[in-house]
Specification:
- The chain has 207 residues and is of the alpha/beta class.
- The chain is built from seven helices and seven strands.
- Helix content is 29%, strand content 20%.
- It has a seven-stranded mixed β-sheet with strand order 3-2-4-1-5-6-7.
- It is globular and about 50 Å long.
- The chain starts with 5 loop residues before the first strand and ends with a strand.
- Keywords: Hydrolase.
- One of its GO terms (molecular function) is fructose-2,6-bisphosphate 2-phosphatase activity.
Length: 207
């Protein structure tokens, strides 16, 4: 392991889309952000410009690419399909109201880890690809100092719940165009998260 003993990971959710506004399930359907609402990201944009990122990664889906372009992060970005949202299969574009009486949907809400979405992605597959990305990120011979990951709500919830075992998947809240910042220190042969905060800044929460 290199000389770096501290790493900050910024998890950014893409800007809002029409489907988000309509509360439709949006997984891997490749829709654009609402361009007229990108200025809602200006405060985040200004905060990120203050940081020198040595690692920038993004989902390949259009809404993430458009958000990354607007944020003008001053660093070369790497596109990684592993950072895509879960594939909602037959439920893509549907709302809770349209699905609430479908038996397998009700089962999935209660047991998402064991119930496969029809013609979609099982949670185990979703976990596996995100785990693969995270493992590579933390096992680099020369660790990053500041890393930005631009992705989707489900991905960010899973990453936070994986890296902070006391935090549950559904308890993680991240708005469109918001960043969750996780700070890590290298201690006794492993990376330990010692704080979580939101960007734009709110009061820091010590872990």
């Amino acid at each position: 392991m290199g000389t770096c003993h501290h790493m900050d990971l910024f998890l950014v959710r893409h800007g809002v889309t029409t489907w988000n506004k309509e509360k439709r399930y949006l997984g891997q359907t490749d829709v654009s952000v609402i361009k007229s609402e990108l200025n809602e990201l200006d405060e985040l944009k200004n905060e990120l410009k203050k940081i020198e990122f040595d690692g920038v990664f993004s989902s390949d889906l259009r809404r993430c690419q458009e958000t990354l372009s607007y944020l003008e992060v001053p660093s070369h970005s790497l596109i990684d399909k592993r950072l895509r949202e879960i594939n909602f299969g037959d439920w893509e574009g549907k709302t809770y109201e349209e699905l609430q009486h479908v038996p397998i949907y009700r089962q999935w809400l209660d047991q998402r880890e064991s119930v496969r979405i029809p013609n979609g992605e099982c949670f185990e597959s979703f976990q596996s690809r995100i785990d693969s990305f995270i493992n590579e990120l933390f096992k680099r011979e020369r660790p990053y100092n500041n890393v930005l990951v631009l992705s989707h709500g489900g991905v960010i919830r899973y990453v936070v719940s994986k890296l902070l075992p006391h935090v549950s998947f559904w308890s993680v809240s991240v708005e469109h165009g918001q960043a969750i910042k996780l700070s890590f220190i290298w201690q006794e042969g492993e990376w330990l998260c010692n704080s979580l905060s939101e960007v734009p800044s709110q009061e820091k929460e010590k872990l």
